[in-house]
Amino acid sequence: MTLVELTIAMTIMAMVVGTLGGLARTVQQSFEYTQGYGTATQHARVLLDRIAQNVCQATASEEFPGCIVVDEIVDSYRYPDTLVVWRPSGTAADPTDLPRYNELVIYCPDPNIPNQFVEMTAPSDTRTVPPAGDGSAWRTALDALKNNDATEIVVLSDLLRAASTSGADANSLRGAVRFETRLRPSATDWADYQAGAVAWDNLPWVQGIYGTQTGLRQVWVRTELQLTPSEQWISSNPEAAWAIPYFGSTALYYELPHP
To answer: What are the residue boundaries of the structural domains of the chain, listed by start?
Structure first.
């Protein structure tokens, strides 16, 4: 074999080895992503099921509809990323009025670690919560609760996507989660009825279910969140931390009394 032939053979072999190496890396990344996707899906399934279970078993009254979303406004943008559920461990202290803080279960990103989605409770706080429609009071109360050492925190997932709210500022990261609730009849409908502007029979009762004593109300909760495909995928592919969207919904039904 001449020197030219040897050189050509070595060049071809180098090309083959390089191609196989690139293919092997692609296969490895695909495996890591698939494995990470499965992990993220399992996290999403657990936390969405947990939220649905607590919402479906929540306590509700005319004053508090079982669960509410408390949002925060940052630079004129609304972030509805905190869900409050009235879920006492036993019978509520006052099931016909407002809950106590120790009867609440709160879902939100951790205020100090935005990639963690957590469940919070305040078992030692027996104060009565603000009215459901007082967003400012709720924001103040939850801010204090989230930063209170006595608050018990359970991490449901550490794969929550953390995105910046103001460009590249790392200090403005927020967890990518969104809650929305819808009441039927709505709070406005009920207020109009109490003011005499709408008749009992004309309220938008769920599936038209109402009687002379009570009417059926629905509280629909929708959850949207983004999880990343596991820490292993991110650490080995820092430029490819793709987020996966997950969606969940559940509803609570309870009776509103005819005065």
So the answer is: 3-257
